[in-house]
């Protein structure tokens, strides 16, 4: 019970934006992962490239912000970067 109370009241617990921002952010890599089953012709190269830049910037932010939010924010954007780079490679092959 103390562990749960400690998490609840921590500086990155569920009473803070350090928790809920990253949790809702997981929708981005989830959507990109689900889109891997769609034809590559439906991929927007510009938007996918923008998402790659976005994730790189926020990975840096996740590392620099105090308290560090590695599990939620950094892991989320690293996952998104991976999926977006895969989608970008699919788009490039389709253009080819």
UniProtKB/TrEMBL annotation:
Main localization, broad class: mitochondrion
Membrane topology note: Multi-pass membrane protein
One Pfam family named in its UniProt record: MPC
Family as reported in the entry's similarity comment: Belongs to the mitochondrial pyruvate carrier (MPC) (TC 2.A.105) family.
Localization per Swiss-Prot or TrEMBL: Mitochondrion inner membrane
Alphabetical UniProt keywords: Membrane, Mitochondrion, Mitochondrion inner membrane, Transmembrane, Transmembrane helix, Transport
Keyword Transmembrane recorded: yes
Single Gene Ontology BP annotation: pyruvate import into mitochondria
Name of this protein: Mitochondrial pyruvate carrier
Function: Mediates the uptake of pyruvate into mitochondria.
Gene source species: Theobroma cacao (Cacao)
Entry GO terms, CC: mitochondrial inner membrane
Key word Membrane present: yes
